[in-house]
Write the structure tokens for this entry.
Amino acid sequence: MLKKLNRKNVPASGLGPVRVLQFGEGNFLRAFCDWMVDILNEKANFNGSIQIVQPIKAGMGTLINEQEGLYHLVLNGIQNGKQVRTTRLIRCVAGVQNPYESYDAFLKLAENPDLQFVFSNTTEAGISYAAGDKSLLTLPESFPAKITAFLHRRYQHFKGDERKGLIFLPCELIDKNGAILKELVLRYAREWNLDPSFIAWITNHSTFCNTLVDRIVPGFPKDTIKDILEETQYDDKLVVMAEVFHLWVIEGPDNLKEKFPVHKADLEVKFVKDLAPYRTRKVRILNGAHTALVPVAYLNGQRLVSEAMNDAVSGKFIREAIDEEIIPTLDLSREELRSFADDVIARFQNPFIKHELASIALNSVSKYKVRVLPSVLKYIELKKALPKRLLYSLAALIRFYKGTWKNQALPVNDTPEVMAFFGEVWLENDIKQVATRVLGNTAFWDTDLNKLPGVTEYVAETLEGLVNSE
């Protein structure tokens, strides 16, 4: 019989002082940041626990509190050419506080003298301005406004002590996440007419780092949960599965490394002066390859990323696209780019990660614009030639957005405006006209791609070949 998962039933599961406040209780943070803190406690004497704040009214807080913050993380992947699988009981989470149940209890957390760090993952939409947040007297709705109120309570409680500023490590997948969060916090402070000395305290004594995170986290392993529970002998409703690979790039001050001593625990965390090259590398190689692969592999009959990588046609296509058309457009050293690309390919091949192509297909037009098109444009600029694989992917994307293939529905999922455009454009009988209209849609690409020499002809020819092969 499985044991209940709580601290009474888990030996040596005491908690250190709360040193981290975390906005978000989802799978990614629990499989990434919380896992790292757990390892730091074990290997680097970090001696800290994490207090989670539920960022929205409904969430997983009650369930996490029922298990007293405990859960298992299962890592599956390929490392140095070998399959690796580990299971770890994460012990560093103190619990979850829901500010929608008690705003004052949330603000009281700011009075903790041991608090140093704030982690967050409130989705890309979370770091944004909400005009309805007018004051700190009642619970604000937006994440930045909640942070403003929290910092104000901390500033008041510690009487402006400059040593009590916090270090923010946001994990939201937007460019300059730390800088934008700081800008919004200061905006609220000014709009709420808060003390100028408080605004100066935020500016000078709290650190908002830009970060880049990378780990694939499929989440709850429903297909193998029975085996995992049998292995652990605990009734764990919060098991999370992730890949072995992990990377956290943090743009911050020199002393941050000592305060967050990941170097003592062999964790893949880079402290850098400028993370822009790393962000570009990830967006172009990892995310760009995902986006370029989806329509090609789906029309070729694959449904999973790993399945596509093992296919002779789709696998060869994306490897060559990375090697010959994406890497040559990037500024980092060839050796570093090659090493990262090898890791990406190994991650795509991971047989334990059931990464569905359909899930990556969401909003593919905007993804192609951000992730793939910059490589296309840079390649043309540098090589004075066409990146034919990346443009083949664009043609496949146009065909994908017709919505059916071989009498079967395709998982096209985009904004109403995009869907309406393709619904109209595919009424055209002339394939070249279809290609020309899509390439010329400046709302999609911010430019008319028909103006690039040879692009219209190549995409139209490729699209016609796809149509005729159905």
Remarks:
- The chain has a mean pLDDT of 95.
- The chain has two domains: 3-272, 288-469.
